[in-house]
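Worked Example 4.2. Consider the chain below.
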Amino acid sequence: MTPRKRKKMDINKWKSCAVDIDTYCILRAMGSHGFRKPASMIAKIVDDEVKKISKKNNSSYDKTRENLLSQGKKLMNGK
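Applying the procedure from the previous section yields the following structure tokens:
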């Protein structure tokens, strides 16, 4: 039996976040109704919020998403 090689996670592609256990349990339950894993469920929730923000600001979804993505990247880089 050969040992499996462990792949290193690309930290430029993936990030982790911590949530309290109750939120995690609710997230799992919400995902199970839509057959989503927690990461996919978080992505869906974020996407829904981007849609709400774009509607509230009377801006296009793409422009709002690009704006938020740019702001988030600046925050990640400590700017």
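The mean pLDDT is 88. DSSP finds three helices and no strands in the chain. Compare this with Example 4.1 before moving on.
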